[in-house]
């Protein structure tokens, strides 16, 4: 079983340290609060958690560690929000004219966060579900990006549509989705560019990619890829991308590394959309659906 972010991250350490006490005094609460804030949980969620725990644990000493643990688990789970719908829109659809069209998943995010890797790993997951998948290399700015996507395509056995270097990203996305429709493919995954030096440029580009795709098929998911190890930086990126496209789900990558865990809660709050997938390594099978209960249990293990 893969190691989920949890054990030994800052969030986990803070919570477990609290549980290890048989008497909790004011200093302990302060320390606890501080650890949670540095765990990327954020000030708001930390305050809520601490207040809830203080009330429910009656402040003065926890007599029963098992009971304390249960309370902690419940309160943390509330923050991670198990009620969010985390299903991925990957079922082919039908247009108003009754034509079958593939589900289209746009994958967006800043370069280096793990977009291309996520596209490859997600293709693998879908192929394992017996879906016909096609990849579109709409990051035409970097030749290496399309090459990297092709490597993933051959690794997982799915075709890749790419354009000439510097081609219009929207036209490549259009071609990919059109090819997917003609080939009766189930899902088209579109990898996009993520250079941030020109926010307006990015905004125009991603907006156009989406509009052009939608001449053929609706976009079922816009997945924003965020690197969990970058902490607050991820939040800044989330804000920018939210302005650019309607993000429907978050992919948190590198949760296998030095990520502090609490970012899951913050980023969901910031965007109001769920973390749907998590990246747990660089390998082809290192992508998992995000499961709130599993996450909380890993943090508390
Ligand atoms: P892109 O520029 O956003 O397309 O990012 P890439 O897909 O090229 O990934 C950037 C780097 O992060 C590569 O070295 C990947 O192998 C690595 N990477 C991606 N996802 C994960 C993950 O979940 N865990 C780890 N440890 N590394 C990852």
How large is the count of helical segments? 11
Estimate what percentage of residues fall within beta strands.
15-25%
SSE ordering:
EHHHHEEEHEHEHEHEHEHEEH
Question: What is the CA-based Rg, rounded?
Answer: 21 Å
Integer average pLDDT: 89
Derived structural class: alpha/beta
Helix content: 40-55%
Q: Which strand order do you get reading across the main beta sheet?
A: 6-5-7-4-8-9-10-11
Shape: elongated
Number of strands: 11
Low-pLDDT residue intervals, each spanning 5 or more residues: none
* Biggest beta sheet summary: 8 strands, mixed
| First-residue to last-residue Cα separation | 14 Å
Which small compounds were modeled alongside the protein? guanosine-5'-diphosphate
EC number: 3.6.5.4
Membrane topology: Peripheral membrane protein
Binding site for GTP: 109-116, 191-195, 253-256
Protein name: Signal recognition particle receptor FtsY
Topology:
Layout: E1 5-8, H1 10-20, H2 26-41, H3 43-56, H4 65-80, E2 93-94, E3 100-101, E4 103-108, H5 115-128, E5 133-138, H6 143-156, E6 160-162, H7 169-182, E7 187-192, H8 199-213, E8 219-227, H9 232-244, E9 249-253, H10 263-271, E10 275-279, E11 287-289, H11 292-299
Parallel strand pairs: 4-7, 4-8, 5-6, 5-7, 8-9, 9-10
Antiparallel strand pairs: 2-3, 10-11
The chain binds guanosine-5'-diphosphate (GDP).
């Amino acid at each position: 079983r893969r190691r989920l972010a949890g054990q030994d991250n800052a969030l986990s350490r803070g919570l477990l340290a609290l549980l290890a006490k048989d008497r909790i005094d004011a200093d302990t609460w302060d320390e606890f609060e501080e650890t949670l804030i540095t765990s990327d949980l954020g000030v708001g969620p930390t305050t809520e958690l601490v207040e809830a725990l203080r009330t429910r644990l009656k402040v003065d000493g926890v007599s029963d560690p098992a009971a304390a643990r249960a309370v902690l688990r419940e309160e943390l789970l509330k923050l991670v929000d198990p009620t969010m719908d985390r299903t991925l829109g990957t079922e082919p659809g039908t247009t108003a004219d009754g034509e079958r069209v593939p589900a289209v998943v746009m994958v967006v995010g800043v370069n280096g966060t793990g977009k291309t890797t996520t596209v490859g790993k997600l293709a693998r997951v879908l192929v394992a579900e017996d879906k016909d998948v096609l990849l579109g290399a709409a990051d035409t700015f970097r030749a290496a990006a399309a090459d990297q996507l092709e490597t993933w395509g051959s690794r997982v056995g799915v075709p890749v549509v790419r354009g000439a270097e510097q081609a219009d990203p929207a036209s490549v996305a259009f071609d990919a989705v059109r090819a997917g429709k003609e080939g009766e493919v189930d899902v088209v995954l579109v990898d996009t560019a993520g250079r941030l030096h020109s926010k307006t440029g990015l905004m125009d580009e991603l907006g156009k990619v989406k509009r052009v795709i939608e001449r053929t098929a609706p976009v079922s998911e816009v997945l924003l890829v965020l690197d969990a190890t970058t902490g607050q930086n991820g939040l800044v990126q989330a804000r920018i991308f939210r302005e650019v496209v309607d993000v429907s789900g978050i992919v948190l990558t590198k949760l296998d590394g030095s990520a502090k865990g609490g970012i899951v809660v913050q980023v969901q709050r910031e965007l109001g959309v769920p973390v749907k997938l998590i990246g747990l390594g660089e390998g082809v099978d290192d992508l998992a659906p995000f499961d709130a209960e599993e996450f909380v249990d890993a943090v508390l293990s």
